[in-house]
Amino acid sequence: MCGRGPGRAARRRPACLWVTLALAWGAGSRAGAAAGDGGGEAPCGAEGWAQAAVRPGPVFAAAASYRGPGNDDARSNKALPILLWWSGSLFPHFPGDTERIDCPRGSCLVTRSRRAARHRRTKAIIFYGTDFRAYEAPLPRLPHQTWALFHEESPMNNYLLSHPPGIRLFNYTATFRRESDYPLTLQWLPGPGYLRGPALPLAEKDAWRRRGYGPVLYMQSHCDVPSDRDRYVRELMKYIQVDSYGKCLRNRELPSERLRDTSTATAEDPEFMAFIARYKFHLALENAICNDYMTEKLWRPMHLGAVPVYRGSPAVRDWMPNNFSIILIDDFDGPQELAKYLDFLDKNGDEYMKYLEYKNPGGIQNQFLLDSLERREWGVNDMTLPNYLNGFECFICDRENTRVKAEQEHKKSRGKTPAPAPHVAHVQHMGCPMPTPGFGSIEDLSGEDRKDSTNAEAAQLDIVLEILEWIKTDYDALKHL
Ligand SMILES: *[C@@H]1O[C@H](CO)[C@@H](O)[C@H](O)[C@H]1NC(C)=O
Ligand SMILES: *[C@@H]1O[C@H](CO)[C@@H](O)[C@H](O)[C@H]1NC(C)=O
């Protein structure tokens, strides 16, 4: 769990005011960096290059304001609703702990000072999914406060949120699921242009093959993960040459000292990118299996013009530029059948090139993908657009202002105007299945692995019971208020 989680953005704080935006960006990329493979996989030691440590980009550019024409909020700060960032290190503002935000329809105060937790005007508390622990939450929960969940990272960081009682603690969510209130599904895809990045000519890839390099690249340094990806890759390696450079299943060394040194060569390093772009296929296995959980493992090979051999979101096809741009591991009966197909494509250039046709003009045919990119208001790697942390707090700010107004009208009309309907998160805002073996069945697992999976289940059960117990206590406490 090195380098993960809150604190890194804060530590990176620049010392002068005009770089406020850079910090807001820093927080965004911090969240994103951890998402590279879920928390617990932040850059440290040899892990570094397996991450997108920092998304590069123009550093100081335009303003990041959400203030819309609909915002004519003239209230003083003292009259505004307060939103509390419970996970203070995500607080996307600098300097200070409190700031006024002017959002598309109204304004709020945002703070990371937990002293505000019981304040009458504190209308919403924003939690970070990865470090959310029910027993650390501000209890008892106050009836006038909503809870918001920000969780862009891997579901493996907190399976509690995949349990119905876990997710229903929250009123609003920003997760990788498209069903979420504020979806972050395409957080690793900067835009359509990223997909159109040119591929290395096939002749060069073939020349690389003749020099003894395999058709398939594997690059993974976080080995023991819920998706159990290494078990599959180990099996695949029996049938086709897979060059593996990470800590997991390593069978080859990177070609230069500079690339091996993870303190200099990050995942965005041009030399590194050029190196991996020579491979025809990249094994792209997410660390957890869940609908709409897609990371740079998927998008980066597409950007580079390698074909992802993918396992992760079962719904990944919905987001692909066309129907022929990735190879899904689960379309095959097993590693041997997959290897056979990859070998066929390796030897048949025309068939292989069909997987890169989406890079041609007009090649991105998926209107849902294009519309989703067009619609989202935050940017990836783009300082001219606000980031999704600021976007989410504004989303909540507007919701809370609307709710406060509706409640006032409800009171004023003595109930003739209906009270605002409650809004509660749904299991599909996260809803990830429990981990299963990456290859074979539970019965095939060795004693040690099986114990791991049983322990994991027991731990999950404990958490659910804890939550149920806690909810009971919470309601009991409320009765006495
Ligand atoms: C992909 O195939 C599905 C059905 O197989 C179809 O509904 C969809 O329109 C196709 N998408 C594109 C972009 O061709
Ligand atoms: C917030 O969610 C809780 C359940 O966790 C629910 O009881 C409450 O009514 C919701 N509040 C609003 C304002 O929607």
Automatic annotation (TrEMBL):
Its EC number is 2.4.1.-. Residues 81-183 form the Fucosyltransferase N-terminal domain. The keyword Phosphoprotein does not apply. One of its GO terms (cellular component) is Golgi membrane. It is an enzyme of class 2 (transferase). It is found in: Endoplasmic reticulum membrane. SUPFAM superfamilies: UDP-Glycosyltransferase/glycogen phosphorylase. It is a single-pass type II membrane protein. Residues 216-362 form the Fucosyltransferase C-terminal domain. It catalyses: L-seryl-[protein] + GDP-beta-L-fucose = 3-O-(alpha-L-fucosyl)-L-seryl-[protein] + GDP + H(+); L-threonyl-[protein] + GDP-beta-L-fucose = 3-O-(alpha-L-fucosyl)-L-threonyl-[protein] + GDP + H(+). Residues 1-31 form the signal peptide. Gene3D superfamilies: Glycosyl transferase family 10, C-terminal domain. InterPro entries: Alpha-1_3-FUT_met (IPR017176), Glyco_tran_10_C (IPR055270), Glyco_tran_10_N (IPR031481), Glyco_trans_10 (IPR001503), GT10-like_C_sf (IPR038577). GO terms for molecular function: alpha-(1->3)-fucosyltransferase activity; peptide-O-fucosyltransferase activity. Belongs to the glycosyltransferase 10 family. Protein O-fucosyltransferase that specifically catalyzes O-fucosylation of serine or threonine residues in EMI domains of target proteins. Attaches fucose through an O-glycosidic linkage. O-fucosylation of EMI domain-containing proteins may be required for facilitating protein folding and secretion. This is GDP-fucose protein O-fucosyltransferase. It comes from Callipepla squamata.
